[in-house]
Amino acid sequence: MATILGQNQYGKAENRVVKITRDGDTHHIKDLNVSVALSGDMDDVHYSGSNANVLPTDTTKNTVYAFAKEYGIESAEQFGIHLARWFVNSQEPIQRARIRIEEYAWDRIATSDANSKFIGADEVKHSFVRQGQETRVTQITYDGQNWEVVSGLKDLVVMNSTNSEFWGYVKDKYTTLQEAYDRILATQVSGRWRFNWSDDEQRMPNWEKSYAETRKHMLQAFAETYSLSLQQTLYQMGSRIINHRSEIDEVRFSLPNKHHFLVDLEPFGLKNDNEVYFAADRPYGLIEATILRDGADARIPVDMTNL
């Protein structure tokens, strides 16, 4: 039976690189997990085993570390752009590079020791503590002419302890859920947003500022929306980003509903006045949707785990 080669790529996954920038006594950390995937004229290596067009994956790993030294890491996006441009422009057989980056954030450790020589604004300048569970992510794709940058975050847990309801839904003979007029709304946000920057003739976004502002607007929308459904909150989060960040054309969220159910305390002679909840980790409702700038096309995959 005849067969042909379909879509393919190769590279080095999960290259952990930590870059320390020393500004006198003050140090700055960039902690990245970088995955490189390359594709192009790779038929021969699959059909005959010829490596004539293959840049070793070990070389891609070395490039990640070398570029951290040569270029520094201003932002995950900028670092990924440097890498993608290099792989496509320096190797003729390589026609497309996809760079995926997770960034792990660190906070400075605060101290009350006013006599320490390392203290500045109540912070130790070279001591850090890892921020929560939130992870910043980005994917950069380059084909020699056009760029596509999709950034975002995952594992950001948020909660509103009130200003959320859920009622008026469809009921059938299997429905047991009670309507709620004052409930906890909690979710673990996974979000991706696609930039409309696509070629070198355009002005490149300020990646660090864009991430901070996008995250801010997302959280403000979550906090300020009186929610009648998690879908409504999701849409407000995406709409606020689109309306406030002109560099972004598409936002996709995946929001698992971290259910909190009121505990029945009546067997103990106690009244539960929306105070004590059981936090259920599974099963959970999963709400997903894409919010687009009017006229933009949807490109972020429905299954965001593939980013």
In N-to-C order, the SSE pattern is EEHHHEEEEEEEHHEEEE
Main sheet: which strands, in order across? 1-2-3-7-8-9-10-13
Task: Give the proportion of residues in helices.
Answer: 10-25%
Shape: globular
Distance between the termini: 34 Å
Poorly predicted regions are: 114-121
- Percent strand equals 25-35%
How many helical stretches?
A: 5
> For the CA atoms, what is the radius of gyration?
24 Å
Number of strands: 13
Q: What structural category do the secondary elements indicate?
A: alpha+beta
Mind describing the biggest β-sheet? Answer: 8 strands, antiparallel
Q: What's the pLDDT, averaged over the residues?
A: 90
Please provide a written account of the structure.
This protein has 307 residues and is of the alpha+beta class. It has 5 helices and 13 strands. It is globular.
Secondary-structure blueprint:
Layout: E1 15-23, E2 26-40, H1 43-47, H2 57-70, H3 76-90, E3 94-104, E4 106-110, E5 119-120, E6 123-130, E7 135-142, E8 147-160, E9 185-195, H4 207-224, H5 230-244, E10 248-257, E11 260-262, E12 277-279, E13 285-292
Antiparallel strand pairs: 1-2, 2-3, 3-7, 4-6, 5-6, 7-8, 8-9, 9-10, 10-13, 11-12
Helix pairs in contact: 2-3, 4-5
